[in-house]
Amino acid sequence: MSLRATIKPFEKKIFLSSPTMHDKEQQYIQEAFDTNWLSTVGKNIDEAEKLVAEKTGRRYAVALTTGTAALHLAARLSGVTEGTKVFCSDMTFIATVNPIVYLGGVPILIDAEPTTWNMDPAALEEAFERYPDVKHVMLVNLFGTPCRFDELRAICDRHGAVIIEDAAESFGASYKGRSTGTLGDIGVVSFNGNKIITGTSGGMLLTDDEEMARKARKYSTQSRDNAPWYQHSEPGYNYRMSNLIAGVIRGQMEYLEEHIARKKAIYERYQEGLKGLPIQMNPYDTANSEPNFWLSCMTVDPEAMCEQRRTDSEASYVYETGKSCPTEILEALLSINTEGRPLWKPMHMQPLFANCDFVTVSGGTGEDLFNRGLCLPSDIKMTEEQQERIIQAIRRCFD
Ligand SMILES: Cc1ncc(COP(=O)(O)O)c(C=O)c1O
Fold it and tell me: Which CATH architecture best describes the domain 256-396?
């Protein structure tokens, strides 16, 4: 338990990132009811796909049930199959890597680097030294921050490897003026409930390749052949988006820029309000990228970390004046009825991937970030006054 002075808790919980609805979403849902397109076909799906393709600059956006489904199809369409080795971002949510496992592929986990928290180009280079035959790379833009894409692309090009870009968290972000989700050979975005905009669930696969888009649509609807009866030559899935979900996404698309602006303001207020503390906000390449600021995160500087103990299922810390740690800060946030979260626990630390190879050149940047980092409440409905109280609660952890 923290010995620091406490702050009065909020009556209504402040979430990490919860859905923020406006007026258009229900209108498009109502349209679907009125026209009885209550299925996986309908105008909302067509329009949502068109809007996302236009926004990102990709020729095709294929609407699917989830971002995970989109990653599954993207991996299959890029040729991942039984035994295929795939270099994957290590510092991510497990949905980036699970689709490789569904296909019987072998994830090889690549460490993060400290300037964007994404895949380390030097570690990727090292991975190709060890596994020169690998032809697939799955990389993520973590917490809405674009990776060091050009460096990663140059390495992949030298080795003839395709890139699947998991832009689930970074929809609306850009790198050198290009939308994330269009940087890789195939891109994926997610519209689950906590994302920058949401359909309550949902995801899309982004591609410029007409044949790939056609196949993604086919696979997502049980791979029906072009025949007058139900005929199937390949396995498929029931992955197509519902016209109701698409209505919510269609409505939310009109507010994407507003959501990003509000998330950015939250990030900047934390940056300002936490000044002087021995902490760093999640960094990004200010010259080349514009994140969507989906989640504001921070790390405690190494010399300001009190002792933090984590077992497989429990966390504790030892109180120390002038020092703190993610466990104490998360406890302080919880005590005022706000939701924070540890950073994603790197994949090589997950029991599921204990047997996977892990490539690092730094000795474990992702693990270090996980030990010292946390996600801060980043809900766009949070008021400035509420955020100020959260900032004060964090500051007191370092008293
Ligand atoms: C990095 C990352 N990849 C993939 C996904 C999967 O998206 P979905 O929840 O839509 O399946 C998520 C979010 O949940 C994510 O954060």
Answer: Alpha-Beta Complex (3.90)
